[in-house]
Amino acid sequence: MTRRTGRLRPAGVLLLVVILAAVPFLLASYPVSLGGRILAFALVVVSTDLLTGVTGMPTLAQVGYFGVGAYSAGLVGIHWTDNLIVQLAVGTLAAGLLALVTGVVAVRTAGIVFLMVTLAIGELIHQVADRLDFLGASNGLVGIPAGTLYPGGEPLILAGYTYWWALLVFLLGLTVAYVVAKSPLGLSMRAVRESPTRLRAVGQSTYVVRLVAFIIAGAIAGAAGTAWTAQTRFVSPGDLAFSVSALALLSVVLGGAGTLWGPAIGAAVVFLTRDWLAANYFTGHADLLLGIVFVLAVFLLPRGIAGYQLSRRSDPPHSGAAA
Amino acid sequence: MGWLDANLLTMLNGLALAALLFLIAVGLSLVFGTMDVLNLAHGVVSLTGAYIGVALLDPATGTIGFIVAMLAAAAIGLVLGAVLAAVTSGVSDHLRQALLTLGIAMIAGDVLGEVFGSDVRSVPPPAFLGGSVEILGRSYPAYRLAVIVLSLIIGVALFLVLERTKAGALVRATVADRTMVEAIGVRSRLVLGGVFAVGAALATLGGLLAGPVLGAQPGLDNTVLLLALVVVVIGGLGSIRGAVLGAVLVGQVQTLGVSLLPDLASFLLFGAMAVVLLLKPAGLLPARYGTGARA
Of A52, A172, A226, A264, which sits most exposed with the smallest number of CB within 10 A? Predict the structure, then answer.
């Protein structure tokens, strides 16, 4: 079970964290803010992998819960407090709560039907954001004040500071995802993917395992949403569109489903291709570039980016796409 | 009678949309049912058909010209389907199929946008169907009625081929037990490739016929793909009768529903789908054989 999520080498992880933390010292303000948004999106993709790869429930709803977190943080910022920790807590709770309410019915389905139900959830959240006036409707939520870390503290305005906050939330969320995946619950989640019948045979309810996984993943996506708002101070319904949900799911496959860290890298590749490579060098052709990346990945990286390094292992790859 | 009178044209529009959606969605459904391939490039295949209409049709197009355009669309669809079948044949995992076919769709959509521009292109109906007919004292575009009739004919023909011919029996057998079909000496891959090609040809044909109703523009491929997916899962994967029912429901939700409940317009489609799937996860009329019903 440890092997499925990839082996963590403490020194390597520490080096990676140091490099990520040093980004604001190395790059200009625009790339830093792009990096911060990548971290928020990557955390959504990690939450998508927790369901898709680890539990075998391919989902298109995570961007919706991300939106719940993002809008909640924005509303808290406008109407209550600019404290980022409060915003993180409220956004995470709100997304987790909605994941509970929607998950109660959604996780009764499986495979492609579950995929379509989650598509409906994501689209319905998107439409709510697009219609409700107190969320800014199609104009998006504007006028969110810069966040602070403690009462009376300096607002975080510089890209470097909001980046660090996003990095903190990302590392927090990733750690939770790893801990869950390696816990006894994570073992049950893998059992849901591999053999739900056997899991039932040993007396566990697959329904409860699937629901709990759904709530945790929703809450993590909500946390990612608050990190997004802390940087952009603006949430648009377009951030929750179907195309973003599709990219989140494809990032999981591109990165290597079930490995958690692979999908985070997949998210970075997708985001950089769309918002840096296409925006700067091939204006208007983001779809072409992303399409080429996806097609190449299917044939050159059959186990995703994570599988490239792990390909010498003998155990077969898992994607949990059984319908 | 008053209600029916007021909403008759809206319901007819819903039927015309259903006819187009059926033609497009039935291929998606059969390919999933027989090949277990989720082809997310289906929307762009259909959009290709619409652009074939942009290229070949003008307001003066006569009967012959329109039939030529239909044959051209079907032929190009057959080729596209065969290519997609070949490309996806080595990829059995659904998520990687999604990555591959959506990647292809994004590339093809970008190329189509480059060739035909990013503007909405309208497609004229053929001259002999350009007028309108009287229905209960109201005039209605003849073209849309023709689309409904043509789609009915194709649907019935498809059903008869699948249920009453030897080729249809082979397809059903392949759905039910691929290994057994191989064992009696049939190359199941050819059967599957054929289904893929015919399904794509129906999608390009549907796209061509949809041109005069929906137009052609970048992004329409995603809209069509989403609608077709909703049709297919509501109706039941791999089932022709299910695709008919799903298309009729989605057509009415998108026209009658939106006209009766304008405030809820944007929630209706996915709300309706969620309700259907939670009550009947296998769809309303799942396939009676094979893997489609299992999903």
Answer: A172
